[in-house]
Design goal:
Layout: H1 2-45, E1 59-64, E2 67-68, E3 78-79, E4 82-86, E5 91-93, E6 98-106, E7 110-118, E8 124-132, E9 144-145, E10 150-153, E11 165-170, E12 179-180, H2 183-186, H3 189-194
Antiparallel strand pairs: 1-4, 2-3, 4-11, 5-10, 6-7, 6-9, 7-8, 8-11, 11-12
The structure holds zinc ion (ZN).
Amino acid sequence: MIKKMSLIIGIIIFILILCATQILNAGTILESKNSNKNEIIEIGETIYKGKFPIPIENFIAVTSKFGIREGNEIVSSFHRGVDLCGSSGSKVLAVKEGKVTYSGWQNGYGNCVEIKHTDEQGNTFYTFYAHMRDNSLQVIKDQQIVVGQILGIQGSTGNSTGEHLHFEIRKKSGTNEDTIDPAPYLFTEKEMETE
Ligand SMILES: [Zn+2]
């Protein structure tokens, strides 16, 4: 009888230990998942240390900032980039050396170019330039380009109401789902305040 009891107690203790290890394991998994998430966020925020040159020649003003568009409550839209306006016919310039991943027409964006870059930490990110003038694109897919290289001429192609450059910084190629605000990479804090 005592033997049977101690066997049952033994089994119960065994089950308890098993449960405890399971919970501990689950905790570790959860923790590592969280730290991965943090890492991804960090990469996004430190995507590039330093500033980019303004990607438009004869820059005049920012005509639309990154984020939720103001004064439009019926159709809430999120602006995935920043709109930069240069004088008419201004050249659109690459902000950093890299490789062209797209050059051509895209619905809404008109004539556009996407470039793949690698930062000092080896992280990959993409810059994207849209609404350029018809027949003005100067680069082709897979072309290696240098900083300041002419990509095309500022235009109003695609879904655009006036001549400007729509500029995005993307974490993934071919999609605007994961873009970050380009302003801190283009302007100083003081410049952003006075905008
Ligand atoms: Zn835009």
